[in-house]
Amino acid sequence: MSEQTSIQLPPQGADERAAFQGELLALFSSGYLGTHMGVHILEATAERVVGTMPVSGNTQPYGLLHGGASAVLAETLGSVGSLLHGGRTKTAVGVDLNCTHHRGVRSGTVTGVAVPLHRGRSTATYEVIINDDEDRRVCTARLTCLLRDAQPRELAA
């Protein structure tokens, strides 16, 4: 993850927050799909998650950003927000993802911002807006995650 990463956790004891943050950092920097695609989480709270992804290496054969790459960025950011909302006792599992692709992108970086539409006890829904380097909307996505009870060590990488 980027050195700029800032993860703020739900109110808990300082030792629990530090342990949970360490597990999250390990989880999101060790081999998950977003890592392979160059996703960097720049800011993360349950209220807002921001991340970037390069277009290069994530295109379809015509040289445009692959729609599936936008979906990976959206699901990653929404899942992080859902996980932070659920806290240490919950695991976030995506159950519905909808992406509307507005324009093609051939180069640069895309930036996604995820904000909650609903944060409940058993589900969390985030809207993710993905923009290009010129702040033009590339994709609008909505992710709903099921918040399941976490199993011991389930968050460990």
TrEMBL record:
Domain Thioesterase, residue spans: 62-139
Key word Hydrolase present: yes
Source species, domain of life: Bacteria
GO molecular function: 1,4-dihydroxy-2-naphthoyl-CoA thioesterase activity
GO CC annotations, alphabetized: cytosol
InterPro entries per the UniProt record, alphabetical: HotDog_dom_sf (IPR029069), PAAI_dom (IPR003736), Thioestr_dom (IPR006683)
Pfam families, per database record: 4HBT
Record PANTHER family: 1,4-DIHYDROXY-2-NAPHTHOYL-COA THIOESTERASE 1
Protein name as annotated: Hotdog fold thioesterase
UniProt organism field: Streptomyces botrytidirepellens
Lineage: Bacteria, Bacillati, Actinomycetota, Actinomycetes, Kitasatosporales
